[in-house]
Amino acid sequence: MADQTLPTNAWPANGVPADLIPPGRKRLGFALMAAATLGLLAVIALQILYKTEVTT
């Protein structure tokens, strides 16, 4: 353990450069998160609509 590249007071996550993730993969991740969020909102909206449906 003689070759430590991180300062002793740094968090391990700070030692990993963000450039290791390619821009295309970052865009894909953002698109997947956006699609999942929109899907969740659509499911919630459908549940609200079905719950407020009045049966006579």
The largest sheet, given as strand count, sense and whether it forms a barrel, is: none
Class of secondary structure makeup: mainly alpha
> How many individual β-strands?
0
**H/E series:** H
Query: What overall geometry do the principal axes of the alpha carbons give?
Result: elongated
Q: What is the overall number of helices?
A: 1
The fraction of residues in strands falls at under 5%
Mean pLDDT: 80
Task: Please write out the topology.
Blueprint: H1 23-51
Describe the structure.
The chain is an all-alpha fold and 56 residues long. Helix content is 52%, strand content 0%.
What are the defining features of this structure?
mainly alpha, elongated, 56 residues
In short:
The chain has 56 residues and is mostly helical. It is 52% helix and 0% strand. It is elongated.
